[in-house]
Amino acid sequence: MATGRNHRPATRSRGIPEATVARLPLYLRALTALSERSVPTVSSEELAAAAGVNSAKLRKDFSYLGSYGTRGVGYDVEYLVYQISRELGLTQDWPVVIVGIGNLGAALANYGGFASRGFRVAALIDADPAMAGKPVAGMPVQHADELEKIISDNGVSIGVIATPAGAAQQVCERLVAAGVTSILNFAPTVLSVPDGVDVRKVDLSIELQILAFHEQRKAGEEADAEAASRKGPDGDMPAVMPA
Ligand SMILES: NC(=O)c1ccc[n+]([C@@H]2O[C@H](COP(=O)([O-])OP(=O)(O)OC[C@H]3O[C@@H](n4cnc5c(N)ncnc54)[C@H](O)[C@@H]3O)[C@@H](O)[C@H]2O)c1
User: Fold this and answer.
1) Where are the domains of the chain?
2) Mutation test residue for ligand 1: of 124, 186, 204, the one with most atoms within 8 Å of CB
């Protein structure tokens, strides 16, 4: 059993590095915004700024796609959208199930961004019998007893876990046994999965903790700078003498 493996370290498709794969959705989001504004071409610098990526890195990333742009013109926006979508497998239909339709699961079910990116929510599953048949985001919630049948009937390979942490491993095992090979886990627990199953974890509290660390460091640096300015060049003397 591999434990909570986030993604394959090796390359996935035609030798594209995993770090490049991780940036492709950022380019796609920026390109989609340009496409919606009917912008025909974009320079590597403009696109890099919009995606929040260094432009040399962007050019290197696009070289893996065989996309080099045209000097003086830039990249064709529509064609890049198509190329990146194809590379990410987004030109296919990916039915997704969400397991655990509480606060978070219901919010995810109502999120329009999945469908617009090719991820069709095929079913909403919950263990609470009182939830069964209740409509959420226009779909009836199905009971967890049906999980295996739902996965097989819909050819689902991606499962989203939004159950309490204590139930997540068991849900994960059922999903995997039923044929799911990619899991997006929102529960705050590390999942054990067999080889060949990819798990990506989303944890907003971890992100906030990282921001808290940076905030603390910034506050420390500001305090140091203030102390240094009070000391002045000769150590104890204030830099600005009080009037
Ligand atoms: N990743 C994040 O950033 C983030 C943010 C908020 C919440 N969470 C986590 O997401 C999870 C859900 O949070 P919530 O606020 O929606 O909780 P919730 O209690 O509102 O909903 C959980 C749902 O899971 C169902 N459930 C329990 N066991 C199940 C099982 N074995 N199979 C199917 N369904 C089952 C419950 O009936 C309930 O409807 C929690 O683990 C929480 O910690 C993560």
Assistant:
1) 2-87, 94-202, 207-238
2) 186
Could you report the predicted ipTM of this complex, rounded to two decimals?
Answer: 0.97
> How far is it, in rounded angstroms, from Cα 151 to Cα 145?
12
Residue type, 84: I
What is the whole-number distance in angstroms between the Cα of residue 102 and the centre of ligand 1? 6
Beta strands in the chain (DSSP E): 2-3, 41-42, 75-76, 94-99, 119-126, 135-136, 139-143, 158-161, 182-185, 192-193, 198-201
Longest dimension (CA), the chain: 81
Residue 103 near ligand 1, beta carbon < 6 Å: yes
Report residue 189 as tokens: 């627990």
CATH architecture type of domain 94-202: 3-Layer(aba) Sandwich (3.40)
pLDDT tens by residue, 149-177: 999 999 999 999 999 999 999 999 999 99
pLDDT band per the 50, 70, 90 thresholds, residue 186 = very high
pLDDT, tens digit, 9 for 90 and up, residues 223-240: 888 888 887 655 554 444
Q: Which CATH class is domain 2-87?
A: mainly alpha
Residue written as tokens 């204590």? 166
Contact between 21 and 89 (Cβ < 8 Å): no
